[in-house]
Design goal:
The protein is of the alpha/beta class. Helix content is 45%, strand content 10%. It has helices at 6-16, 19-26, 33-44, 88-99, 113-118, 133-146, 164-169, 175-187, 190-198, 221-228, 236-244, 257-265, 287-298, 313-321, 331-363, and strands at 62-64, 67-69, 73-75, 104-105, 124-127, 151-154, 249-254, 270-273, 303-307, 326-329. Helix 1 runs antiparallel to helix 15. Bound molecules: flavin mononucleotide.
């Protein structure tokens, strides 16, 4: 199949990846209500068609926390991408750089920040706060030394949400049974086994290997998160981070206007309106439903990004219209990577760009940075 849409990349990834990795990417928390709402609420927004305007010149570029993006899209931090394709973070980062958009490296990526940087471009760096502050200090210093321009501080995962699919697929199985399950499922996917299992090693969580006891496999990592992520974190810890990190900080995982105001007070340069792709607290509202109130509350004070349910260039324009300066995409790039590495991620980004162009032309929006609610049909 020649993939045209994100659901096509999803289908290709489903065929290529061992079941546990596909389910890990595709799934959400509990009954996946919020996951469904992220997509459904985005789909339900109506754009306002405008015609007979000179749309020969389009400017899709935007500036976010001082960084210029060729289009208002960035690759969201996605854990363990190196298990979806050989050294997956390096491949996805290369595709993002070629498209002129940022790649954000997860704390729990397979590749280190140094390996991704050596692949061409220093990534934005996503931080999960571990209890071991000495290690955190070292990790931030490493990201800075590698040249990461932006720190994305994820605040909505003091504990991992319950993901039923990970239990059913064996992804959250521990120790020997987890390892046997990985080998068994891998054996049923020969192309993946050759690319990733045999030739994509080492399969460690690169940036945090030093904090994980010797010999721990990636499939043990949900249990490790539960034990090592720091749930005592408060806004005061942002000051601590700032002492080590002097670049822009984007707080990721805000859904409430009061938290958004706190992020401003704490001195963040940006925030991501996000429910972690419906993977944390099921039952919270969709990101796109939360976005307008947060934009009204703090839109003039810092740069707002959003993620969750962005599946096409049309969705990007809808998010911009509701107050985001740019969108992060998670599953779309993870599926494309699983479907076929860097070329598929590049292809998916090119599609997103051309869809955004179409949406801008047919709504009469010449500059992405000027998108506002006038692009939407009532009731917005
Ligand atoms: C497989 C997977 C792994 C993720 N890992 C991380 C992570 O390590 N750090 C983080 O801040 N967010 C992580 N996220 C959340 C994404 O950054 C993003 O918020 C979410 O995927 C957006 O929703 P979307 O998938 O509908 O685009 C992950 C999401 C997925 C699907």
């Amino acid at each position: 199949m020649t993939p045209a849409s994100v659901s096509d990349y999803r289908e290709l990834a489903r065929r290529r990846l061992p079941k546990m990795f596909f389910e890990y990417i595709d799934g959400g928390a509990y009954a996946e209500v919020t996951l469904g709402c992220n997509v459904a609420d985005m789909e339900a927004i109506a754009l306002r068609q405008r015609v007979m305007r000179d749309m020969s010149q389009l400017d899709m570029s935007v500036e976010v926390v001082g960084q210029r993006l060729a289009m208002p899209v960035a690759l969201a931090p996605v854990g363990m991408a190196g298990m979806y394709a050989r050294r997956g973070e390096v491949q996805a980062s290369a595709a993002a750089a070629a498209a002129g958009v940022p790649f954000c490296l997860s704390t729990v990526g397979i590749c280190t920040v140094e390996e991704v940087t050596a692949g061409g471009t220093p990534p934005w760096f996503q931080l999960y706060m571990l209890k071991d502050r000495g290690y955190m200090r070292e990790l931030l210093a490493r990201a800075k030394a590698a040249g990461s321009p932006v720190l994305v501080f994820t605040v909505d995962l003091p504990v991992p949400g319950a993901r039923y699919r990970d239990a059913r697929s064996g992804f959250s199985a521990k120790g020997l049974s987890g390892a046997i399950n990985t080998v068994w499922q891998g054996a049923t996917r020969p192309a993946w086994a050759w690319d990733v299992f045999l030739n994509g090693r080492p399969h460690t969580l690169g940036s945090v290997t030093g904090a994980i006891p010797h010999g721990r496999s990636v499939t043990d990592f949900l249990g490790w998160i539960a034990k090592n992520f720091d749930r005592s974190v408060t806004w005061a810890d942002l000051d601590w981070v700032r002492q080590i990190w002097d670049g822009p900080i984007v707080v990721k995982g805000v859904l409430d206007p009061d938290d958004a105001r706190d992020a401003v007070r704490a001195g963040a340069q940006g925030l991501v309106v996000s429910n972690h792709g419906g993977r944390q607290l099921d039952g919270v509202r969709s990101s796109v439903a939360a976005l307008p109130r947060i934009a009204d509350a703090v839109g003039g004070d810092l740069d707002i990004l959003m993620d969750g349910g962005v599946r096409s260039g049309l969705d990007v324009l809808k998010a911009l219209a509701l107050g985001a300066k740019a969108c992060l995409i998670g599953r779309p790039w993870a599926f494309a990577l699983g479907a076929g590495g860097r070329p598929m991620v590049a292809r998916m980004l090119a599609t997103l760009q051309s869809e955004l162009a179409t949406a801008m032309i047919l709504t009469g929006c010449t500059r992405a940075r000027e998108a506002d609610r006038s692009l939407l049909d009532a009731p917005f």
